[in-house]
Specification:
The chain has about 375 residues and is α/β, with parallel strands linked by helices. About 40% of the residues lie in helices and about 15% in strands. The chain has 14 helices and twelve strands. The strands form two sheets. It has a seven-stranded mixed beta sheet with strand order 7-6-8-9-10-11-12, covered by helices on one side. Helix 5 links the parallel strand 3 and strand 4. Helix 4 packs parallel to helix 5 and helix 10 runs parallel beside helix 11. It is globular, with a radius of gyration of 21 Å. The two termini are about 35 Å apart.
Length: about 375
């Protein structure tokens, strides 16, 4: 049944759609898309207007652009014409301003965002006030779906799931390496980092695991931060930060010839190849809890490479692609909101191994972070 639908791909890719005109996908590259094919051929439909508010400049630009690429490929692979307009929103004020301008004939049916929790909280509130459905792809603050906003859904991982995943990792795969060692937690001070730190601290306390030290420090203060970790005798470091923070952390480790015995990156840019390269010597062997890594042989990789000229920089593009595709189908229903709420993709069904199923807060409960490790500059499952 799936094979019969592949002939539609090339025609659909020529529909008026994206901010940047995509190159055509080859018919033999659709295995990554097969999971979302409908039971019957769709009828010709009117253009679906969508928007994306993402930080394409500033400290979150790397994750913003990688997320955009997954979203763009999802729209490109859809079976109906889509106009997806992106907006560079490096701060909450810019995001709110852009959404308030989305009125009249240009008003989108839905908005996708936003990487940063501060951005997501502001943008989702503005979208809800404007009566526009808002889908958060990867910002982590639990508050995003705890305000009772009717138009707001989160497709990605909340901070609470990171807390659970850290305890599972320390009591499971990392138990032998981390057992009895002194735990410390360092973040960059941003909303996403603090939300993850709050969830991890609560989960550790609930599991009877002692957290010896928790604090925040930007890249410019990393020398003092490492000195503080060393003075406290930190042996396991849980860290959340962006590319600059990670690079600064490992640079100071080399300068003082000291580092904790085990480092576990929790979200942020720890799963991004650019950040791993920036970290430099000593980074291999670090563990990461985040979106599932994209295997080199995954069919999505070739699709991505044909469009952008290189392999994915992290699993964030495949994650965005995976959770967006079912939503795009649901938005075509007579009652889009009800169709989104009824989505039921079991864990493991989506191309990155996630699923979709919403709880009463409109939080996807099937987007769990996974444990992976950097070896020889490549992030893979243990």
């Amino acid at each position: 049944m799936f094979r019969s639908r592949r002939r539609n791909i090339l025609a659909l890719l020529t529909a008026p759609a994206l901010v940047r005109a995509p190159s055509a996908l080859a018919q033999g590259e659709t295995r990554a898309f097969d999971f979302f094919r409908a039971q019957a051929e769709p009828q010709r439909a009117a253009e679906l207007r969508l928007a994306a508010v993402l930080p394409l400049s500033g400290p979150f630009s790397l994750l913003g652009d990688e997320t955009w690429r997954g979203l763009e490929l999802a729209a490109q692979a859809a079976e109906t014409p889509i106009r997806l307009t992106r907006f560079d929103t490096p701060d909450p004020a810019q995001a709110v301003a852009e959404i308030r301008r989305m009125q009249g004939a240009e008003k989108p049916l839905a908005i996708f965002g936003s990487v940063s929790s501060a951005l997501a909280l502001a943008a989702s509130q503005a979208a809800d006030s404007a009566g526009i459905m808002f889908f958060e792809l990867n910002a982590t603050a639990d508050a995003i779906t705890e305000r009772g906003l009717r138009q707001v859904w989160r497709l990605g991982t909340p901070a609470q799931h990171f807390g659970v995943a850290v305890v599972e990792a320390l009591n499971g795969p990392l138990r032998q390496a981390a057992h009895g060692l002194k735990l410390a937690m360092l973040g960059d001070g941003g909303g996403s980092a603090e939300s993850i730190a709050d969830a991890v601290q609560t989960a550790l306390q609930g599991a009877g695991l002692n957290l010896a030290l928790r604090f925040s420090a930007p890249a410019s203060e990393m020398a003092g931060a490492v000195q503080r970790l060393r003075a406290a005798g930190a042996e396991v470091l849980l860290h959340t930060g962006q590319e600059g923070d990670i690079a600064a952390l490992f640079r100071v480790f080399r300068e003082v010839n000291w580092r904790p015995k085990l480092i576990l990156g929790c979200g942020g840019a720890h799963a991004v190849e650019d950040a791993a390269r920036a970290a430099g010597a000593g980074h291999d062997g670090c563990w990461v809890l985040d979106v599932p890594p994209t295997p080199p042989a995954h069919p999505f990789v070739e699709t991505y490479r044909r469009r952008y000229g290189a392999a994915p920089r992290s699993g964030h593009s495949l994650a965005a692609f995976s959770v967006t595709q079912p939503v795009l189908m649901a938005l075509r229903a007579p009652d889009p909101r009800a169709a989104v709420g009824a989505l039921d993709e079991p864990q493991g069904r989506l191309p990155n191994g996630w699923g979709i199923g919403f709880d009463a807060r409109q939080q996807n409960t099937r987007a769990r972070p996974v444990l992976a490790r950097w070896e020889d500059g490549r992030l893979s499952l243990p």
